[in-house]
Amino acid sequence: MPPVPPAVLSVDGLRALLDTLTERGYRVVGPTVRDQAIVYDDIRSPADLPAGWTDDQDGGRYRLVRRDDDAVFGYAVGPHSWKRFLHPPMQRLWHTERDGDQIRVVPEAAPDRPFAFVGVRSCELHAMAIQDRVFLEGGHVDPGYRARREGAFIVAVSCGHAGGTCFCVSMNTGPKAGAGFDLALTEMVVGGERGFLAETGSDAGRDVLAGLPRREAAAGDVAEAEAVVARTAASMGREMRADDVHELLLANLEHPRWDAVAERCLACTNCTMVCPTCFCSTVEDASDLATGESSRSRRWDSCFTTDFSYIHGGSVRASTRSRYRQWMTHKLATWHDQFGTSGCVGCGRCITWCPVAIDITEEVRAIRDGGTR
Ligand code: SF4
Ligand code: SF4
């Protein structure tokens, strides 16, 4: 496919993009306002997007706030991540059906349509790449994840607003969408008009962009998009020194800070549920006594539960101290040994959604500084 130069889409162009994706058979999922948060759900038009809303985030705090403009992507990230579609919280794997005196095991069907994800942030592209490594590139390919991931069309959005708990600059994962997308948009205002600089990252993206109403981007458009991202990078809510964190944590496994954080941690699992890279799950069987049918499902689990590390006779990680330490050292240290990257992309969700505002960047700083509080 010949290259398609960067272009500028209007809001009507964005509408045409969503229409095109729907017409091509995708299940289009993007950000929308629900339950006082920006969540990911099925969308049909720009009217479903969170125009004019932003998020106010800090440790243990998330509020939607009205913007003083009508920016469509003028927020950071909410409680959802794309893993809820690629690696769903609850996924039936198979069920049985009775056929006379026979029992048939029926595997769960693959989704009937590929996903189109709209509004994927740079940190989330990195998180997807991490889960790809876990589910697709190891010794055991996960067929359910592969069925959802293959053929997905990704519309990334470089960030024009950094949340109060974002630290993607520290993790080198944002705020500009660099790779892993079909189309990448940067929202901006040029000549008083709202527009989206559109860049392509695949043949599928070039094919879609070529069919949209657009104008070719001028040098000034590209410069403005770069300025948007630069302003976002300069306004990160958090930062964390990451270059030596692997050695730092593994050299401090008996640091008193683990006791201090365990006094606050509720072991509620929120941080692992909202994290876009956490992938642990458990398997549950269920039987229906009325029909005689049974099923097996996989649901998200967490290293913060005692059951998760239960081996006959007891839990390997019996204390909250050991469970928090396992989570943080895996995210920031042993993930490198296991998968070749950090397990943290700096999205800040675990800080925002922790009910007692435990902050991974602050915990690293405390261990580095030797303090316990
Ligand atoms: S760190 Fe916070 S979110 Fe995570 S388990 Fe502990 S209390 Fe829950
Ligand atoms: S550990 Fe926290 S900041 Fe890092 S990717 Fe997970 S939720 Fe985001």
Care to describe what's here?
There is one protein chain. The chain is an alpha+beta fold and 373 residues long. The protein is 32% helix and 25% strand. It contains 13 helices and 16 strands. It has an eight-stranded mixed β-sheet, sandwiched between helices. Helix 9 crosses helix 11 (320-339). The longest helix has 20 residues, at 320-339. The chain is globular. One iron/sulfur cluster (SF4) is lined by residues 265-271, 304, 354-356, 358.
List the helices and strands and how they pair.
Blueprint: E1 7-9, H1 11-23, E2 27-34, E3 37-42, E4 53-58, E5 61-66, H2 83-86, E6 90-99, E7 102-107, E8 115-120, H3 122-135, H4 143-149, E9 153-158, H5 168-171, E10 183-190, E11 193-200, H6 203-210, E12 215-216, H7 219-233, H8 245-250, H9 257-264, H10 270-274, E13 281-287, E14 294-300, E15 310-311, E16 314-315, H11 320-339, H12 349-352, H13 360-369
Parallel strand pairs: 2-8, 8-9, 9-10
Antiparallel strand pairs: 1-11, 1-12, 2-3, 4-5, 6-7, 6-14, 10-11, 13-14, 15-16
Bound molecules: iron/sulfur cluster (2 copies).
